[in-house]
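In full, the data.
>
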Amino acid sequence: MTAILEAQALRKTYTMGEHEVRALAGVDFFVDKGEFVGIMGPSGSGKSTLLHLLGGLDKPSDGEVTLAGQRLSILNDKEATLVRRHNIGFIFQFFNLLPTLSTEENVALPLIIDGKNPRDYQERITAILDLVGLQDRRRHKPDQLSGGEQQRVAIARALVTEPAMVLADEPTGNLDSKTGMAIMEIMRRSCDELGQTVVIVTHDSRAAAYSDRVVFLADGQISTELQCKGVDMTQRLRLVLETMERLAT
């Protein structure tokens, strides 16, 4: 398969006062089209930093990210913004919905930002709302929705432009267990039914078990990878838990 995203020798160092903090220490990473990849690791392992670099939200201290055939390091800020807008859908832990907009309007927002008329994309918007189970909530504003429903809106918003890939940072982190797993089911369906490429950062073993491949980070480097494709969910979860336990010893 052809990699839709590649990272080579990624390094990221932050300066905090007189000290330098090494968040990433030379990471090689790839994602194939249609793949569902989980990134796991303890707090401070560099997983959120890696996701931000992969999505072009931050720049590496060294190394290269290539997204949909474009090297991000040679792009100026405007060009990088356009690459993100056209290729990546983001899902965050705290939803980031606009409180004055309805469900449908929040979902349509990326289209509007890209200069498109949402009326021309009603079929797409309706299909995405059906996928996330919010057809009957399309007129509701965020304060009229539960946390799980708000995260479903965020997923629909990330999918509406048919991005090359979706990047999700702790998508279940602000939800109860049952709701979180419902969210993961939707993301898994987007991969299986829409061919969507998905990368999630998570500390939750059950969320990671929905992935085809799980990458484990430690001290800013990849410590191991776990292949889960073709394995049922019970076995996937067992493999993830066993790997976490092994890495912790």
Notes: The domain at 3-93+165-248 is CATH 3.40.50.300 (Rossmann fold). The mean pLDDT is 90. The beta strands are 3-16, 19-32, 36-40, 62-67, 70-71, 88-91, 165-169, 198-201, 213-218, 221-227.
